[in-house]
Amino acid sequence: MEHEMIGTCNTCSYSKRFKFGGGRLKFQNVCLGPAINTKTGKMETINYKMYDPMVYKVYTDIELQSEHPEYLDKFKYGNFIIYPTGNFCPSCHNKTFDFSIKVTVE
Predict the structure, then answer these.
(1) What is the pLDDT of residue 25?
(2) For the chain, which terminus, N or C, has the lower number of CB atoms within 10 Å?
């Protein structure tokens, strides 16, 4: 299942739409998700199953997330887990970036 999500910062109002997960026909080799391009500092959508870790820092990285207890809600697709609140904002560099699902596509 693929989701269209949006990330919004509560401090600087930066927002970004992105795809999360994989579709029914491509789930075995595609898992889309947000990442920070370490060269440009910008947030991009990447394929979590095939990416260059020297170029991208994925939002599953502990540096990009606030600490959350395991029982809190999270968005999960396979091994790709992101928390809805307290993520790194690529604009103001605070952990005030929140994710929410806008559309789910089968």
Answers:
(1) 65
(2) C
Contact 95, 15 (CB under 8 A): no
- What count of Cα atoms within 13 Å lies in the side-chain half-sphere of residue 88? 18
Angle at CA 104, nearest 5°, toward 101 and 106?
Answer: 155
Cα–Cα distance between 21 and 57 in angstroms, integer? 17
83: Cβ–Cβ under 8 A, 6 or more apart, which residues? 65, 66, 68, 72, 73, 74, 75, 99
Q: Could you tell me where the beta strands, DSSP code E, fall in 1-106?
A: 2-9, 15-21, 32-37, 43-47, 56-58, 75-77, 80-82, 97-105
Strand partners, 100: 6
Q: Report the 10 Å Cβ neighbour count for 62.
A: 7
What pLDDT is stored for residue 106 in this prediction? 53
Pick the more confident residue, 64 or 101.
64
